[in-house]
Amino acid sequence: MSDPLLYRVEDGLARITLNRPQRLNAFNAELAHAWADATAAAVGDSAVGAILIEGEGRAFCAGGDVIDMATGMGGNDEIERLAQVIHSGISTLTSSSVPVVAAAHGTTAGGGLGILLASDYAVVGSDSRFGSLYANVGLTPDLSVSAQLAATVGERRALQLLLTDRMLTASEAVEWGIAAEAVGEGDAATIAAAVRTRAEEVARFWLSGAFGAYGQAKRLIRSRAERTFPEQLDEEARTIAAAFGGAEAQGLIAAFAKRSSGR
What we know:
Blueprint: E1 5-10, E2 13-18, H1 29-44, E3 50-55, H2 66-72, H3 76-94, E4 100-104, E5 107-109, H4 112-117, E6 121-125, E7 129-131, H5 145-153, H6 155-162, E8 167-169, H7 170-176, E9 181-183, H8 188-208, H9 211-222, H10 229-244, H11 247-261
Parallel strand pairs: 2-3, 3-4, 4-6, 5-7, 6-9
Antiparallel strand pairs: 1-2, 7-8
Helix pairs in contact: 1-3, 5-6, 9-10
């Protein structure tokens, strides 16, 4: 039996691969715990400057494994406990100062939307589709969908997805702000490869530059709801001052000054 999640770190990039392709990478108990462990490991590793989330097979993530819920779980309490485990991984990513990119080829549905929105930059396939579909099986949003989807697309658009069985196209997902860009042409496998390549390019761009500053910019945006407007301004002032005093900024500022002076 293969591992439900693959995790590796290479040259500062932590790669989290959902690995239940036969179930469209839907979460069961094993994947839930592996997800929580992997996100904690990535964020807690000082060698990691960027995180990439991807899925094996023909889809990114279909949310929770409804069949497993119906046949392999003990009841309401276990469902709630497992949701909290997955939620802990989402919170770990969104509250961190490590930028996260998602490579979301194929279909993303249900709680998979929450996993996608836990990234800070999402690359999707030109043939990708996105939907809620919770009510199709009598369930309600989880995995941060009710919070992150509304924050991303606005309350009215979030309701359009949650109260219908509509599936957004890739271009609609970009228009709504769910995805940053849609890439790839040709068959599904070729498009999936293009999505992974582009997502890694984004991550490597962060790593090749001031990834500490990118991470702090992400943290400022992600955490802004915790503060009043004056408090947010104070946090911006504190953060830029801390960045200015760091080796990363000092080196880049010196290089900028040298280029500007023509020396």
